[in-house]
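Side project, low priority. Logging it here so it doesn't get lost.
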Amino acid sequence: MRRIKHSLASAAGTLLLALFSLALAGCGDESAGTTTETTNGIVVASGAVSRLDGTPARGALVRLIDDERWLERTSAGLSPAIDSVLADSAGRFELRGKTGRANVQVDDGDQAALLRGIVPEDSAVELEIALDSAGTLKGSVADRADLADGALFLLSGTAYGVSISDDGFLFGNVAKGNYALVTAAASTDGETLHSVASVGVKPGETKEKDFDALDAARLMVDDFDDEEDLTTLGRVIGAGWRYHGTDAPSKASRSLVPEGAWSGRSLRGDFELAESDSAAWAVMGTFFGDYGESFDLRGLQAVEFMAKGHGVYEISLFSEALNADSTNDDHFAVDFVLDSADGWRKIRVEAADFRLRADTPDRRPDDFPFDAALEKAGAVRFALRRSSGNAPGKYVLLVDEIVLVGVPLERFAR
């Protein structure tokens, strides 16, 4: 049995909202009610939970969350919990389910923990979980015209969920961690999910997040706090962020840095464009599914993100449809300019502004339509090129809070 010692690792189609809300616990001031989904699966995780004073967390609610299919389950109006149990008098628990990537969520009044990325293999994972003070997340939505009664806010990869009302929303006891805040709402345009923001919750902290409106589908593609290659929503909709180097003789490297006021950490790229190659390029942070997988981004209205750095950068979209010929590297792109003196900037690139850039025009169908490219989008990336007017030398780019506006989240339920 593999043992992991944990001290608080940081972490609907039918939207049957009434049923789903009953399946959620640890949510706002209504956290007393719980449900247990029993399974006939094997024991995939067991262990003990202790409170801040070191005593066993008797009666703590321990849940196994299906991290791989969190979106699929929530979009179907199901609880994302595969199994849930109450810790015994010694704080011990056993969780049953299936092998595969999962999260363990523990709630015990004003203390909580969320452990992401449990991957049971040929034996159960043994966990020693130390609770920490729970935080509070609250806020308001100024314009609720497009939200029907019963709309929910959910925290990705968890069973946390609360209703949105004229008085706002309140998560009363939430485990420390970084989350994508997702709405589940029967709106005037139909039932849909929105990934509206990334938010970090600290122990004992009260965090406030206010919104003017929730009137557009938003697909949050970053949460850089977890891992470099697998991000919170990346695990839901694909394989997450991949990284490319560059064509020699240029250089590039990337790292996660504690710069982000939005999702905990930010993605940083350091580039060096060589003097000897006028066509030199460098690229950072490509959002993929598994290699060869494509996504339907039809309806894309804009790409929004926070950025800091200097240089002329290209945000580009690659399409499996456009690049059916593996030797074709054509893509749709828009340039944006950064000056380090400006600090962090919010950038919005309208979908209508993307233009085809023909790296291999002899292999490209003439006048390839952008909508057709969006139907099988393979990657979105940031690139630095000499051909865009950048002089030889060193460059820095930081990005965070990357959102594809107008793309329904439930489209990515597997």
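Brief comment: The chain has three domains: 2-135, 136-213, 234-412.
Revisit when time allows.
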